[in-house]
Every structure is written in structure tokens, then in C-alpha cells.
Amino acid sequence: MAIVRMQKLGIAANKKHRKAILETLQGLGAMEIFTDQIDEEDLRVMDTMSQRTQFQKEAEAFDKVLKLLDRYAPKAKTKSLNLTGREIITSEQFRDAETHREEYINDAKAILKGDKQISECEGYIVKDQNTIASLEPWMKLDIPMNLTETKKTEILLGTLPDPITEEMLYAAATRDMESPAVMTQVLSSESGQTCIAALVHKKDAAKVEENLRLIGFAKPAMLVSRTPAEEKSRLERDMAEQKKIIEDTKETIASYGDRREYYKISADYFRTRAEKYRILGTIPQSEHVFFLEGWVTCDMSDRISRLLTEQFGAYVEKEETKETDDEPTVLHNNSFSSNAEGILASYGLPRHGKVDPTFLMSIFYVFFFGMMLSDGGYGIVMAVGCAILIKKFPRMEEGMSKMIHLFFWCGISTAFWGFMYGGFFGDAIDTIAHTFFGVPEDQKVLKALWFEPVNEPMRLLLWCLLFGNIHLLTGLGIKGYQCLKDKDTEAFICDVLSWYLFVVGLILVIIPTDLFAGIAGAKVIFPGWLVVLSRAMAIVGAVIILLFGERGKKNWALRIAMGAYDLYGITSWLSDALSYSRLLALGLATGVIASVINLIASMGGRSVVGVIMFIIVFILGHTLNIAINALGAYVHTNRLQYVEFFGKFYDGGGRAFVPFKQANRYIQVKEEERL
Fold first, then answer.
1. DSSP code at position 16
2. In 3-state terms, what secondary structure has residue 1?
């Protein structure tokens, strides 16, 4: 409904109070602080990068600690913070993090060190497992693998790429040799690798190795100082020791689980300190005084000024807002419309001096969402589900709360349109009555309060086009209101009123025609005066657009040519109006799919098996249908706002208000009343 007025404050105070003032402002979370470029030579800023970096590192360390505790000392499964809201603590509890800072930091170091040790042990285990796997083919070897020779012999260990028998191995090793002193053994043979050993007299060693290389012999990369079996046993003992260390370390980490809440407070405490030092590093200051500026809402400006003046002796000045100022936007709407502020913010916030369309948009949003989903049962499920969440989680995060409340109203709208169209889980009431209670097929149990779109789709299409044109004309009307607010009467007449006359006149001209009668199924006859009036409206509107649509052009020929092109824009209006046929398409899709689900569910007939089949298919089918079509309704309702509605008047361009506040992720500090 409105954009909150903002006030720029300039603050000057004794330098010794700068940290206390920043902490006060941060606790209030009501001021967006900014600093201009420093032009005066005697002003400077502090270098706070090292402190800020240190606080950020400490906050990140506690974030890691909390994740580790969730892994090694899991609590009962908790709900999302978006639903439950952050834990509320007192200022004293928050400041307690400073008192026990070293203790908690030492805890964090111990936990992180333990996690590092666990990772190292797991790495050793993987390494040992890989080593054992590589030793398995050598298990028949009964000498240390790194033993390469005796006094008179050499030992050749290696692999071949292909399987080979003992006889073939010996033959290959002693090729072209007379009276060779050679012993060979195939230790293992697997696909792609054969492990062999050869004991050779030193005088024949070179020749034997040469022969073996002809068939792909390669020495192993790993040569241990024990037999493979002994090395395997040693590695298995080492793995058992590493696993024991891991278990003991996990228990040690888990023992810190009862201090989890302290670590949450510490994480947010250090994150808040980092944010304070970020601002502190941008504040211009002289030897004795520091300065800062910031935006606050007008209703908070006097209270903040009084607080800083009384407690810190600060000088606070209300500064004039300049056109070049990047003034942030804060929206203020009633409890119903405020739930749609997130939808608007996703597109772009309005600038100061412009219209906040949230109120009207929220009404159309809920209205169109209900038309698209349009099933009484689905609407009740959605509304009841959202109501339960609202009741069960009263402290949920603001963004989540607004979204749940918005979908609650969308559920109410969906239920309304469902009963207007006669849909309750499709035709579930009639299907159950006909299948299980013997009600005649031609007897309708749940009747539509208005009409059934499946039987009269063209009637619904006309209503969709009517609602669409109302939506578009409302958007155009907001543009006209903005023109009048800016005292631009010329733009109001030439850019808004002219299009109202042209569009409404054309609609009234078309309604009595045979074309409209063919679509509507009935002939509409206007009295003569209304026919003349509608034609006059269309002509007057067209003439104004033609002559003054491009009134900035001094050349009349060019102005009329551009005006004619503007008149061609009526095709864009027609395209926008036809976009509202999606209200028909999605509404029909929901109902038809729901009816098909009921038909499939009732195929088991009137029997125990049929009842069980009906229940299973009914629950699964309608759950899937409501999920898919609710998503479709959400997407297409957004599109109607963003493309068709906003396209008539809205250009956004506003910037969100980002107050300097505590950077809390896990907790919420309940500050004492200061203002």
C-alpha cells in the first residue's frame, strides 16, 4: 500500500564511544550505515581487516564444529530453522560468549583437531587396504620382497601381462641357454597380470632377465622388507589400531555435544563482531571524533537520535534527502498484502516516489491462483496444511512465515473456486457415490455453485478474458494514478485515458457482433446510444494516441507515423489478454486429471479389494496432482503479475533496506527495551 518514508541521519560522536555506539546500533538493527568518500585531509579510517578476518575465521570454525557435532553426536532430528525459528537468548547469554571466549575456542580447536586426526586415520586405513590388495597376488612368496640376492644367486620378482604355466615360464626364462641354473615359480595368475619369481645363479641372471623381458616382464613397484603374509598381518594390526583411534576420537568429540548451544552462540557472536569491524573499518574519524551516516525509517529517527544523544552525548542531525541519494525501500502493507511482498521483491522493489502495487497485486494473485488450481479438496488440504504450520511454528523465519500465510489464502481461494466449479478432488464425491453406494450414474451428488468448466469451457474463457482485462486495466490505472501524483496531466490523458477509451471502446464495439455471439453462444444487443458511445470512445482514444502518443516529436509527420505504430500496440494488448486463457487451461487440467485418477481408482469396483485399491490410487494420484498443479499455478500466477500486470506500469528499480544488525545464523538475541 505504501513505501515507508526514510530519513538520513548524520552522527558525530567522541571517538571513545564509537564501538559502543556501533554495538548499540547493531543490536537495534534499525539503521543502514553508509560512509561517503573522505575528502578532508585530517580524516582517516581504521584498518580493521586483520581483526575482521580473525573473527570470520573463528565464526567459520564454530560452524564446522556444529556440523561435526551433528555428525558425531546427532540430536533427535530437528526441524528446519526456517520453520522453528532461531532460539531466543538474552543479551547476557550473548555476551557470555565473550567471557568464555578462550574456553570455547579451545574446545573448537580440540574438536577440529580430532576431526583432522580421524581423517588422517581413515587415510592410513585406505592406504593399508590398498597395500594389502597389492600384496594379495604375492602371498605364496615365503621370502621378503626386497631380498634381491644371496651370495651366489639373484632373485627376480616381477609380473607378466599374460597367463603362463610353470613349464612355459621356465622355457621362456632359459631360452638360448646351456645348462642354466634357474628355478622359476608362478605365484599367482589373474586376468591382466601374472606374478612370478625366479632364483638364478648370478652368472645367468642378466640373460634370464633379458629373456623374461621379451615376454613382458616388469619388476614390481612395491618391495616390502617382510614376506607378503607378514606384511599383511602388520597392516591389519595397524588398521585395527587406526580404527580404535577413530572410535576413541569420535567419542571424545561426541562428549562436547552438550555444549552445542554455547557453540551456536559463539559462532553468531564472532560473526556479529566481524560485521561490526567491517563497518568500523569504513567510518571516517579524526583524532577525537568519528562520523557516520545512515538511513532509518522516519518513525525511528527521533528515538534513535534521542538514544544516542542521551547515552553517548552524540550529535545527531537529520539530513536533507538529495535526488542523487540511493534511498532504500521499505514496504508497509496490511497483514494480508504483506505476505505477497516477497513476490514483488523477486521482480524488483519500487523506488521512492512511485506506487507500491503490493495491495492490488496480492488480491489478484490469490484470485488467479485459486482459479488455476480450482479444486475444493485441494484448497482445503492446502489451507489446513498451512494453518497447521502457522499454529505449530509461530516463530518461523519472516520470509517463510509470509510464504506460508500467502499459500493459506491461496488455499482458501482454491477451495472457493473448486466449489464454484463443482470440484472436490475432481469428481471424487460422485465417483464414490456411484461406485460404492449404488447412486445412479445420471444423478449428480456434488453440484457446481456456478457452472462446470468441463461442460462449458467457452463460458469460462469469456470470464477469464474479462478478469484479465480488469487486471490489465487496473495496471494501466495505477500508471494513471502515478501520472496524477506526479502532476503530469498531459501524460495521464495521452498515455492512460486515451488507452482506456480505445480499449474499452473496442471491447464494447465487439460485444454486439456476430463474432462475439459465436464465441459466447448468445447474441448481445446494446441500445443505440451505447453503440454510438462505444464507437466514439474508440475513435477518440485512437485519435489521441495517433496525435499525441509521441508528443515529444516536433515533426508532425513523424509524430503521426509513430502514433500509428503505437496504435498497432493494440495487438500487444490482445496478446496480453489471451494470456489469461491459462486460467482456463490450468483449471481444466487440474479437474480432468483428478477425474481420471478417480476413474482409475474405482476400477476395482464395489469390493474389499476395490476399496483398498481406491484408497491407494486416490491418495497417491491426488498427492501427485496437487503437487504438480500447485507448482503450475504458482509459476503462471507469477507470470501474469510479472509480464502482463507489471508491464503496464511498473519498472521497479528500488533497493532493499539492509540495516546494520547482528549477523545471527543460529540464535536470536532478545534485546532489552532501549527506545
1. G
2. coil
CA distance 656 to 658: 6
pLDDT tens digits, one per residue of 52-68: 999 999 999 999 999 99
| Dihedral sign for Cα atoms in the order 115, 120, 126, 129 | negative
Q: Which residues pair with 424 in a beta bridge?
A: 427
Q: Give the separation between CA 21 and CA 15, rounded to whole angstroms.
A: 10
- DSSP 8-state assignment for residue 203: G
What end-to-end distance do the CA atoms of the chain give, in Å?
Answer: 27
**pLDDT confidence of 568, banded at 50, 70, 90?**
confident
Q: How confident is the model at residue 675 (pLDDT cuts 50, 70, 90)?
A: low
Runs of H (alpha helix) within 486-568: 489-491, 498-510, 514-520, 528-548, 556-567
* Contact between residue 315 and residue 13 where contact means Cβ atoms under 8 Å apart: yes
CB neighbour class for 29 (10 Å; exposed up to 12, middle 13-18, buried from 19):
middle
Question: What pTM, to 2 d.p., does this model score?
Answer: 0.86
Chain center to CA of 228: 54
SS3 state of residue 7: strand
Rounded to whole angstroms, the Cα distance separating 293 from 283 reads 9
Contact 331, 339 (CB under 8 A): no
Long-range (24+ apart) CB contacts under 8 A made by 529-537 are 533/508, 534/504, 534/505, 534/508, 534/509, 535/505, 535/509, 536/505, 537/501, 537/502, 537/504, 537/505, 537/508
Bridge partners, 293 (sequence order): 10, 34
Residue 454: phi and psi, rounded to 5, are -60, -35
Instruction: Tell me the per-residue pLDDT of 339-359, one tens digit each, with 9 for 90 and over.
Output: 999 999 999 999 998 999 999
Q: How crowded is the C-beta side of 94, counted as CA atoms within 13 Å? A: 23
| E-assigned strand segments in 539-655 | 653-654
Q: What is the mean pLDDT of residues 542-558?
A: 84
